[in-house]
Automatic annotation (TrEMBL):
Pfam families: Lycopene_cycl
Gene3D superfamilies, alphabetized: FAD/NAD(P)-binding domain (3.50.50.60)
Biased composition (Basic residues): 1-27
Phylogenetic classification of the source organism: Bacteria, Bacillati, Actinomycetota, Actinomycetes, Kitasatosporales
The protein's name: Lycopene cyclase
Region (Disordered) residue spans: 1-37, 423-443
InterPro entries registered for this protein in UniProt: FAD/NAD-bd_sf
Species the sequence originates in: Streptomyces zhihengii
């Protein structure tokens, strides 16, 4: 979204030499590596592990910025490669990813539990959806066109600091071992388990891409939250509809709760929402998707060891209160590229401390049942300008704006929750980190 770097603009102070420049001067740019040579030429300025939203976004930014040689390690075809996913975000413009955007909406709608609808237009922001396959093709084409970038199909293993850089041990498809060396390594691979937290909810969902015999959807409006569904004991649940045409849409059931549902339970919830709530009596399911995203106040370290950093969901890019990730990934990638250009290797936090503190309060209040989630979000969209809400959810509002938004919520339960948080222990969550970066990475 709005990529605010920690560093000043190039003209505001003398630029420091980029961290890779001292061993690149006097040499030509990195050779284009292909075929068998790909597995012997193992040195570059930057190695990026994982080719999801975070890895590809950073590779794209660094390649277009120029200067650094970049190696992206992505798993070969097989079970380690995630299925097609959809990522959604809002922004004023998205020229860098526009070719991969499948659809966008200028209006959003919230349905209250009693059926009342609130339609908002968050101008100048638009809500966009892009597919992971299209995004991958777009970034790969840019990487292929650059003499300073390459993609290696391999399974990344251990990463360790070595000298003034780091090395990555990989296994290539034919079984050979490959060692990649770089000054900097950015690891976007999912964590095996979530860090300890005071509160952890999971955003889990299942969606159908449906086709109806006649036009049943308004392609100009996305239903962001439809609370006309049964609510769980802890957290909240809602429907979600992204119309792709008048007869084609993604229809989804989503919960913020402590544990995922069974496949049968998702199917029952989706069938109820599609047939009873939306009134889609005759439709065909053309594709399905599902995913699990952590919503947690856990602390995600970004620096693993000298020269090795975590990015993406593994580095805390998922917004705890919403599950959205793609916008934060874009901001962080832009900031990293600008920092490296100016000679800094600091990876900025994906979200500010104030935003994370507010998220921790909201998660705890939802989990304890102190606030009514559907009522809270419905009131928020009814009483606050939509553009301000989206900036608030993106961590781009001022303290004064946030204070005004807070007054529109259940003040006393929120204050009680904020007062108890410092005394709560952080515990490990039994669920593993998400297997994929799905549609709500979509978010």
């Amino acid at each position: 979204m709005r990529g605010r770097s920690r560093h000043t603009s190039p003209g505001s102070r003398p630029r420091r030499r980029a961290p890779w420049s001292r061993h690149r001067r006097g040499r030509r740019t990195a050779d284009r590596v292909s075929g068998a040579d790909r597995y012997t030429a193992g040195t570059s300025d930057v190695v990026i592990l994982g080719a999801g939203a975070a890895g590809l976004s950073l590779a794209d930014r660094l390649t277009r910025a120029g200067g650094a040689t970049v190696t992206v390690v992505e798993p070969p075809d097989g079970p380690l490669r995630p299925p097609e996913r959809r990522w959604c975000f809002w922004d004023t413009e998205a020229d860098d990813v526009e070719p991969a955007v499948r659809a966008s909406w200028s209006r959003l709608r919230i349905h209250a539990p009693d059926g009342g609808a609130t339609t908002v237009e968050p101008h100048p922001l638009r809500y966009r959806m892009l597919g992971s396959a299209a995004f991958e093709r777009l970034v790969h084409a840019r990487l292929d066109a650059s003499p300073r970038a390459r993609v290696v199909r391999a399974v990344a293993g251990t990463v360790r600091a070595v000298g003034d850089g780091a090395e990555v041990r990989c296994s290539v498809p034919d079984g050979r071992e490959l060692t990649l060396r770089a000054r900097l390594v950015f690891d976007s691979r999912p964590l095996p388990a979530l860090p300890p937290a005071r509160t952890t909810l999971l955003q889990h969902f299942c969606g159908w891409f449906v086709r109806t015999a006649a036009g049943r959807f308004d392609p100009g409006v996305a239903d962001l939250m439809d609370f006309r569904v049964p609510q769980p004991r802890h957290g909240l649940a809602f429907g979600y509809v992204l119309p792709l045409a008048s007869d084609h849409a993604l229809v989804e059931y989503t919960e913020f709760s402590r544990a995922p549902l069974t496949p049968a339970a998702y199917a029952a919830a989706l069938s109820h929402y599609s047939r009873k709530v939306l009134g889609l009596h005759a439709f065909t399911v053309e594709a399905t998707e599902h995913g699990v995203i952590p919503m947690t106040d856990a602390r995600f370290p970004r620096r693993i060891e000298p020269g090795v950093f975590r990015i993406g969901t593994a580095g805390g890019a998922t917004r705890p209160s919403t599950g959205y990730t793609f916008a934060a990934v874009r901001r962080q990638s832009r900031a990293i590229a600008e920092g490296l250009r100016d000679g800094s290797t600091t990876v900025p936090a994906p979200h500010g401390r104030r935003a994370l503190a507010m998220d921790a309060v909201l998660l705890r209040a939802l989990d304890t049942g102190r606030i009514d989630g559907p009522a809270y979000f419905t009131r928020l969209f009814r009483t606050t300008p939509a553009e301000r809400i989206l900036r608030f959810l993106d961590g781009a509002t001022s303290p004064r704006e946030e204070f005004g938004i807070g007054l529109r919520g259940p003040v006393l339960p929120m204050l009680r929750t904020a007062a108890e948080l410092p005394f709560l222990p952080r515990r490990e969550h039994p669920a593993a980190a998400p297997v994929n970066e799905p549609e709500k990475n979509r978010r």
